[in-house]
Amino acid sequence: MDWKAIHRWLGLTAGTLAFVLGLTGSMLAFDPVQQAWQAPAAPRDLSVATLVERVTRTVPGAEEIRHLPSGAIVVFSFNGDQAQASYVNPANGQVLGAWQPSAPPRWVKSLHRSLLLGDAGRWGAAGIALAIGLMCLSGLVLLLRRMGGWRRLVARVRGSLAQRIHVVVGRAVLALLLLTSLTALTMSASTLGLVALDAGADPDVASVVPGDTGQTAPQSLPGAQLPMLQGLSIQDLRKLNFPDSADPVDTWKVLTGQGEVWIDRYSGQTLASQDTTFAQRLYDWALVLHTGEGAWPWAVVLAFVGASVLLFWWSGVVMWWQARRQAPHITGNSPLTQADMLIFVASEGGSTWGFAQALQDALAYSGHRVHTGALEHFQTTAATRQVFILAATYGEGQAPAHASQALERIEKLGANSVPVTVLGFGDRQYPAFCGFAEALEQTLRAQGWTELLPLERIHQQSAQQFARWGEALAQALGEPLVLDYVPRVPPTTPLTLVARQAYRKHSGEPTAILRFAWPAQSAMERLRGKGLARFAAGDLVGIVPPGSAVPRFYSLASGWADGFLEICARQMPGGLCSTHLLGLQVGDSIAAFIRSNPGFALPRTRRPVLLIGAGTGVAPLAGFIRRNDRHTPMHLYFGGRDPAQDFYFGPEIQRWLGEGRLASVQAVFSRVPEGGGYVQDALRRDAERLRGLVAQGALVRVCGSRAMAKGVAEALDAVLAPLQLSVSKLKAKERYAEDVF
Ligand SMILES: Cc1cc2nc3c(=O)[nH]c(=O)nc-3n(C[C@H](O)[C@H](O)[C@H](O)COP(=O)(O)O)c2cc1C
After folding, report:
1. CA 20 to 30 Å from 441, out of 196, 326, 504, 669?
2. Any idea what the Cα angle at residue 736 is, between residues 730 and 739, rounded to 5°?
3. Banded pLDDT at 720 (limits 50, 70, 90)
4. pLDDT of the residue at 199
């Protein structure tokens, strides 16, 4: 079943009306809260008989006593021709003031119940309640799929702001919202007459007038002397009707949660009783659960649930809009049966379609007929010469929703001689990096499909990595091929260089720590989301060099709170961006934007933190240490080549040690005698100590080249084996994150 389509379709249609119900529901929820404040609640141990006695004294002509869900007591009376309803203090019967039926304006109620459309509207409102229930169910399925199962349901949420809001709010209120929609349906069923709640006609009862004594009119028993009322606690009473003074055969009528009872006004005997039906009890429960009547703390919860619909609706629409913007608009698609090159895509957020378009354009440019489609349509035709699968991974190594059946489909199809090449898209911060692409690769090979290129895995939609894959592809095809993927670049802000510290002036590639300032922003600009986004150490700054549309990303060595933006840039041979950066003079500007890297950010923690970095990879780690005002025990392992050349942040590191921001540092250098080798060698030597830190719950952050990160992971796997732990287990617990380049 396509849960996503159901969820999205319902959200965009019924969701907009659900937003109205949520808003009005929230407003209505204030009523029980206000009611609870209006009059004192009756004490628990008060008997109805005592209350009747007090009321008879203070309210002449009392006809009815109601015990409101809020706990307050209201007495209805007739004073001459004047009907009155007053709050009464149950402790002494004193009249407190006139009773106001209900505070919220009628139209709010009417909008909530029937959209101001009478009976047809009631059906509409019930339909929306049903739709909300279905959205809750489909939402749960999608939530589980996104997070990767029940066990990971509470894990940190990733994605765009709208996605995070949708998921976080969903986790908090899904069950409550489902309950609200079910209770609404229960209530609608009775209002629409689908179930009968009437207990049936009142029994035909009458008080028996005692035999004529010949002198006076027969005396009614005062309410205070009725045995039934003496034994009835006010907590159980809902409503008590006094016998009509003008009708000698009228009776007392008592309504409780259990049912109705009629009492003879002379003898105090019970004349008849009627039990509450199951349907009535159900309705009563639904009423309390849906309205919070008589349970003001619950009403407050309901107000939040109502308001959450607003957030759902807004974030849902934004998510839909974002997905639409990224939706596949493949241009220049050839018909499947005529294409010699097929591209199949599996994407959740839509970005992989952009890569497919670049591949399609490049292949078409070299004269191929190319067809691009979604992976669930995987197939080959007589014309097919090559197949490429571009697949993103979600959840814990899962397929994007639309391609959830693709593996099974491929398993059922027999292989033929057409080579199928898989290109995975993912993020190294997830334990199952490109897990779905790997599963596809395995299945295809097991089925006997050949390949033009082995599986390649693209980290964080890297345009550079994709271009390198394109070069390998061009070589394998024996054709000139240029993959020109132009990512969508957010608006940039000019940053001005305010300081630079150069390293390696004499040998090796020049490197510099560059510090930038950003233009001042007014509060209004910030509100409108203009200017540089706030950032923390470990987030990325995207820099668009002049003459290119493709940004390069650098890890940030500072946070917004530091008041400057700092990176450590190394000259890449022939690198457009690094040449630009290293050529900057103080006062020059660059065009930049922020990309958050939430998986790598360091949460506030008291646990020990193990920071492992090599070369310029120490930059984000330096940013973490710089902000460590709380003196969390941070331990740094730094790997360089030569302390005279590339001990980046060396003097600062010494200072941070002295200030207690850094608990210890192990710096090793691979190109000098007795330098200590590589950083992974230092880890192996410190195995015992590291096991101790990890056993204390340490968080680990690793930053550096891909080869270095691999070496570190292997070394730590060996170190942690005696603890029955591994890097992938720590990753799954979100205790280990890498930032590799
Ligand atoms: C909620 C969520 C879960 C993800 N799970 C994984 C994962 O388990 N493994 C992985 O390698 N990448 C994972 N990613 C990263 C995406 O696969 C990666 O960003 C990909 O480029 C997105 O492509 P798309 O926009 O076409 O869907 C996840 C991303 C999100 C937002």
Report:
1. 326
2. 150
3. very high
4. 59
ipTM: 0.98
Sign of the dihedral defined by the CA atoms of residues 6, 8, 11, 12, in that order: negative
Q: How far apart are CA 470 and CA 482, in angstroms?
A: 7
| Token pair 């004192």 in the structure block, residue | 40
How far does the chain reach from its first CA to its final CA, in angstroms? 39
Contact 497, 584 (CB under 8 A): yes
Supply the pLDDT for residue 60. 85
Q: Looking at the domain 609-740, which fold is it?
A: Rossmann fold (3.40.50)
CB atoms within 10 A of CB 674: 6
Do the beta carbons of residue 71 and residue 297 sit within 8 Å?
no
The residue whose C-alpha atom lies closest to atom 24 belonging to ligand 1 is 349
Could you tell me the residue ranges of all domains in the chain? 3-31+106-195+296-322, 327-477, 493-595, 609-740
C-alpha count within 13 angstroms, C-beta hemisphere, residue 112: 20
Q: Which CATH class is domain 327-477?
A: alpha beta
For atom 29 of ligand 1, which residue has the closest CA? 394
Which of 578, 558, 577 shows the shortest CA–CA distance to 567?
A: 558
Q: What is the distance in A from the centroid of ligand 1 to the CA of 137?
A: 23
Pocket test for ligand 1, best of 393, 423, 459 (most atoms within 8 A of CB): 393
Q: What angle do the packed helices 3-28 and 30-38 form, to 10 degrees? A: 30
